[in-house]
Design goal:
Number of strands: 27
Distance between the termini: 12 Å
Radius of gyration: 26 Å
Bound molecules: 2-deoxy-2-amino glucitol-6-phosphate
CATH topology of the largest domain: Glutamine Phosphoribosylpyrophosphate, subunit 1, domain 1
CATH superfamily of the largest domain: Aminohydrolase, N-terminal nucleophile (Ntn) domain
Largest sheet: 8 strands, antiparallel
Strand content: 15-25%
CATH architecture of the largest domain: 4-Layer Sandwich
Strand order of the largest sheet: 3-2-4-1-10-9-11-15
Structural class: alpha/beta
Length: 610
């Protein structure tokens, strides 16, 4: 989703801004722009709809140069992706430029009142009310800093904002309100970098600070001052440690393909230091040593999209393995339904990006209620980590493809391990020998699937002409059916629904005919016979039956159309393997349809608006 970059340097900043924007590309966006104050202290802006490469082609012979500037990748909310609506957005005098992540909920009120004051609006964006509001306040005698503060007070909604102003040509201004993602300020020698993403910031900074809710600031090459409610804030600069990860596609054609193939390594990495196979025990002391969990009586998992389906699966495991009553909700519903959270409840917010607006707001609500929470995230230094203070890291390294794969795998693995951890805490007996033996073997079973993808790719090609799909499962296979349907619609734009197999005859069965392929996850264990009955009902109505199974020898080939099989494990652990199969099926379907695998249309990696 939208990304922000700001730069102050002794050298020209335009290429530095482009480099920063390129690092933000993975978040998903539809237009690009930058504004620079040039050596004559004039504000110059370039922007265009499309990708950074389109922007660079368009402005190949029209460069702007200066030592101070801001840049933006926009994911359209208010107004179509167009040159005009791309950020930076200028005020009506064209002296002030603004880049903004988030949504201003009262923008129409502000716009209408400014129109009455004689202001003109050129774009469809909510952001234009910020640039014009700042302009309005300065025109009425306020300093630029005070105007920024008054604007911050006036707007309702979520905003991470940078501003440059021709009248203050040596400074970048900015503010943060609510949860529209991070705003981080870094420095190295005399160079200031500002970014909405830690990975973007860290390549050019030695140390950094984080802007918090309601804080506003200015930065020049020699000084940075931060305020909240007119009072200066003192911040401790944090060192940026560690190597910068170099992310490439290696020998793969797509990032997603590479990330799917990394999953056994990610799985192993998440076991390290947490699982003791000799003792058959799991320990998260390094992840959340500060929390006392013995008294926990209930768990509530919250997340969005794939993270939500991971929560659903986590709830099945937590109840089944550790016997702790567990709920799961989308963060967006949880936060607004005035949730009743009983004493001794643990909330687990899940977000690979750590920046999903709904999950941040929900987690912040939990924080305000003083309820324990442990986040699961893949993003070091993310806003979610800061809110919860207790984090289990996914150890998946950077995931570039917009659709989650290895981060989903890491999340479900952590939730599985947590279930075993809580079982011990609650003195619940589990089949330790089987579970730990099988946990050890999962990475090689994942590699077995990845070593032989041709069957799945052939099937994906065969079914890629379809317009609709149903995915069915029961028990721990249901969340994978839901995730499979999500992956298929995200990547291939095929309409797909995930359903509990038992629910099928209560409505969706009306859709079944010879044109409806149904993808069924059938594993050996508790649900096997029930699934077979449901599948036979599909066959009786001529639906096309694809079976994803770990027990092909138990199935009668006369009643299914196609089959994908994977290694047999204890039923509880089969989601680790069926996940890889549904990911591959979706990716190869999208490849057959010649679609953009890493950046599907309309999607964003980091969803910073609610
Ligand atoms: C996954 O493939 C999706 N792109 C999307 O559903 C994603 O899982 C969701 O937006 C939540 O993201 P998060 O994990 O970063 O919070």
């Amino acid at each position: 989703m939208c990304g922000i970059v700001g730069k102050i340097s002794l050298n020209p900043v335009n290429n530095l801004i482009i480099d920063g924007l390129k690092k933000l590309e993975y978040r998903g966006y539809d237009s690009v722009g930058m504004a620079i104050i040039n050596s004559n202290n004039k504000l110059k802006t370039l922007k265009s709809a499309g990708k950074i490469k389109d922007f660079l082609i368009k402005y190949n012979s029209n460069k702007i140069e200066g030592n101070i500037g801001i840049g933006h990748t926009r994911w359209a909310t208010h107004g179509i992706p167009s040159d005009l609506n791309a950020h930076p957005i200028l005020d009506y005098n064209e002296k002030i430029a603004v880049v903004h992540n988030g949504i201003i909920e009262n923008y129409l009120d502000i716009k209408n009142s400014l129109i009455e004051e004689g202001y003109l609006f050129q774009t469809d964006t909510d952001t234009e009310c910020i640039s014009n509001l700042i302009s309005f306040y300065t025109r009425n005698g306020n300093s630029i800093m005070n105007s920024i503060k008054l604007t911050l007070d006036k707007i309702i909604g979520h905003a991470a904002v940078l501003v440059i102003d021709e009248e203050s040509p040596d400074k970048i201004f900015g503010f943060k309100k609510g949860f529209a993602g991070s705003l981080l300020i870094g420095k190295k020698n005399k160079e200031i970098s500002i970014a909405s993403d830690f990975d973007t910031l860290k390549t050019n900074s030695d140390e950094y600070i984080v802007l918090e809710d309601y804080e506003y600031f200015y930065a020049s090459k020699d000084k940075i001052e931060i305020f909240k409610q007119n009072k200066p804030r003192t911040k401790t600069w944090m060192k940026i440690k560690g190597d910068t990860e170099i992310v490439s596609k290696e020998n793969y054609k797509y990032f997603m393909e590479k990330e799917i193939h990394e999953q056994s390594a990610v799985f192993l990495r998440n076991l390290q230091g947490r699982v003791d196979f000799n003792e058959k025990s799991i320990d998260f002391t390094d992840d959340f040593s500060k929390l006392k969990l013995e008294k926990i009586e209930r768990i509530h998992l919250i997340g969005m999209g794939s993270s939500y389906y991971a929560c659903m699966l986590g709830s099945y495991w937590l109840e089944k393995i550790s016997k702790i009553p567990t709920q799961f909700s989308t963060s967006s519903e949880f936060r607004y339904r005035s949730p009743v959270i009983e004493n001794n409840t643990l909330i687990i917010p899940v977000s690979q990006s750590g920046e999903t607006a709904d999950t941040l707001s929900a987690s912040n609500l939990v924080k305000e209620l003083n309820i324990s929470q442990i986040a699961i995230t893949n993003s070091i230094n993310s806003e979610l980590e800061r809110i919860t203070n207790n984090t289990i890291m996914m150890r998946a390294n950077t995931e570039i493809a917009v659709a989650s794969t290895k981060t989903f795998m890491a999340t479900i693995e952590i939730l599985f391990m947590l279930s075993i951890y809580f079982a011990k805490l609650k003195n619940v007996n589990i089949e330790k020998n089987i579970i730990f033996e099988e946990l050890k073997i999962i990475p090689s079973y994942i590699d077995n699937i990845l070593g032989n993808v041709s069957e799945i790719s052939k099937l994906a090609k065969k079914y890629s002409i379809n317009d609709n799909f149903l995915f069915l499962g029961r028990g721990q296979n249901l969340p994978i059916a839901m995730e499979g349907a999500l992956k298929l619609k995200e990547l291939s734009y095929i309409h797909a629904e995930g359903y509990p197999a038992g629910e099928m005859k209560h409505g969706p069965i009306a859709l079944i005919d010879e044109n409806m392929p149904v993808f069924n996850i059938v594993t050996e264990g508790q649900y096997f016979n029930k699934m077979i009955s449901n599948i036979r009902e599909i066959g009786s109505r001529n639906g096309k039956i694809i079976v994803l199974t770990n027990c092909p020898d138990k199935l009668d080939p006369s009643w299914y159309t196609d089959i994908i099989s994977f290694d047999r494990t204890n039923d509880l652990l089969s989601p680790f393997l069926s996940t890889v199969c549904v990911q591959l099926f979706s990716m190869y379907t999208a490849i057959s349809r010649k679609l953009d695998i890493d950046q599907p249309r309309n999607l964003a990696k980091s969803v910073t608006v609610e």
